[in-house]
Amino acid sequence: MPEEAALSQFIDFLRFGSVSTDSKYKDQVLGCADWLRQKLIAIGLKAAVHETPGHPIIVAHGPKREGRPTVLIYGHYDVQPVDPLTLWHRPPFNPGIENGIITARGASDNKGQIFAHILGIEQTLKETGDLPVNLILLVEGEEEIGSPNLAAFLSSHREELACDVVAISDSSMIAPGHPTFTYGLRGLTAVEVTATGPDHDLHSGIFGGAVENPATVLARLIAGLHDKNLKVKLEGFYDDVRPLALWERKAWKHLPLTENVLLKMTGSPALRGEKGFTALERIWARPTAEVNGIGGGYQGEGTKTVLPSKAMAKFTFRLVPDQDPKKISEIVQDYFRKNAPPSVKLDIVAGHSGEPYLVDPNAGFGMAAQKALGRIFPGQKPALIREGGSIPIVADFKTILKADTLLLGFALPDCNAHSPNETFPLAHLDLGAKLNRYLLEEIAAA
Ligand code: BES
Ligand code: ZN
To answer: What is the pLDDT of residues 307-341, one digit of tens each?
Structure first.
């Protein structure tokens, strides 16, 4: 268990409602950034808050010495929105602890994980007055909205941020107590579609039958995204999909994250997805088309005989190597444009995008990462996995800073990231602090 001071600081960190997507929370985002800066200075790093057109970025540096590798640790202090608020068992920004588990928005994604790294750095600095490597800590406030300002920041601070490798803890362990090394992430591209029929809501008895219903049109378009085997039907969608390697398909069959575990975790009546692939293969290595939100017409109690003027849906398409988010966004937009009847007007807004990521888990500093995990869980070989989530900036670390990324997450798969009642085991603060220490040691020794 973490020390009392560390725990109370973690609670302070979680109290900031740093929701990046909603401007109502702007002050909390700023407050959180400044809190972090102060914490990083207090543990002995040189830290500064950098303004951006969006939310600020914090950069901190450890002691620099010639001849040793530079490691950039990245994380984010922004969080996802809290709704639906009524499903939370407690206020999302008023953390509570039960049985060693803390509940709050951002507990796992990503405040708990980045805070554990900070604790690790603090402990090593306290004990030795130094770190085994040159360390850069980069904590941003816009990861949950696609990091719109971070790539430009990397370019304009290329020299300050130059590093040999990036390490990120913003993903999950395959199961409690099971060391996990992630070597792939999906990318994504977001699109929002609004269908407008009549220029105001109409009486569905007086006009229904003569005038197109935009909700029906949108439903038809959504249904057209998949075939009966749940493959995405858009032309060219799979053209650049890199097939799974045989070793991956074999290894993933033996992981403790089984279909039964997934089923329980989701509370769904049954799992379902693209034919010909296991659930893990579908999540980690196959692209998908998801409706994230859908609306239009009367949503209140009882019935209302209305023919709505508008209907809208928000989509994200998760992508795998070597799909190009821009190309897929065009394929998607073309599909909606070509298939909408002339009786509705379509407004299509392309949202943020992020590229997929895949590296050889045994190359570069991959073995150092695996050794560090092995020291935390003696006698266990780390599971080598991909993840279905996205961290868009990882691809930019490669293209702009020329550095590979080690993904060493220690959230649990059932932590309710992005859902009500997000949790993080307090013991994982210690686990993450240890991981930080071992990882820096192993990279220095590599
Ligand atoms: N921590 C997640 C990404 C993640 C989740 C990686 C699970 C591996 C496993 C990150 O904070 C996140 O949620 N990213 C967004 C990115 C998007 C908003 C651009 C995502 O994946 O939806
Ligand atoms: Zn997230």
So the answer is: 999 999 999 999 999 999 999 999 999 999 999 99
Closest atom of ligand 1 to CA, residue 147: 19
Cα(423) to ligand 1 centroid in Å equals 16
Q: What is the CA radius of gyration of the chain?
A: 23
Evaluate whether 23 touches 31 at the Cβ level (below 8 Å): no
Q: Is the CB of residue 114 less than 8 Å from the CB of residue 433?
A: no
Fold held by 4-185+356-445? Aminopeptidase (3.40.630)
Taking the C-alpha atoms of residue 229 and residue 263, their distance in angstroms, rounded to an integer, is: 20
Q: Give the number of the atom of ligand 1 that is nearest the alpha carbon of residue 145.
A: 18
pLDDT in tens, 43-100: 999 999 999 999 999 999 999 999 999 999 999 999 999 999 999 999 999 999 999 9
Peptide bond into 149 cis (omega under 30): no
Q: Residue 351: CA atoms inside 13 Å, Cβ hemisphere, count?
A: 17
Domains in the chain: boundaries:
4-185+356-445, 187-241+287-354
pTM for the model: 0.94
Ligand number, closest to the Cα atom of 21: 1
Q: Give the helix ranges, DSSP H, for 229-316.
A: 246-252, 259-266, 279-285
- 264 Cβ partners below 8 Å, 6+ apart? none
Which option is the CATH number for 187-241+287-354: 3.30.70.360, 3.90.1600.10, 3.40.250.10, 3.40.50.2000? 3.30.70.360
Using CA atoms, how far residue 110 sits from 219, 245, 376, in Å, is 35, 30, 21
Is the per-residue pLDDT at 387 higher than 90? Answer: yes
Specify the pairing of strand 180-185 against strand 70-76: unpaired
Task: Compute the distance between CA of residue 354 and CA of residue 358 in angstroms, rounded to an integer.
Answer: 13
Report the Cα 291 to chain-centroid distance in Å. 17
| Cβ-contact 10, 115 below 8 angstroms | yes
Q: Which residues surround ligand 2, an ion (CB under 5 A)?
A: 109
Q: Ligand 1, from 139, 144, 172, 405: best to mutate by most atoms within 8 Å of Cβ?
A: 144
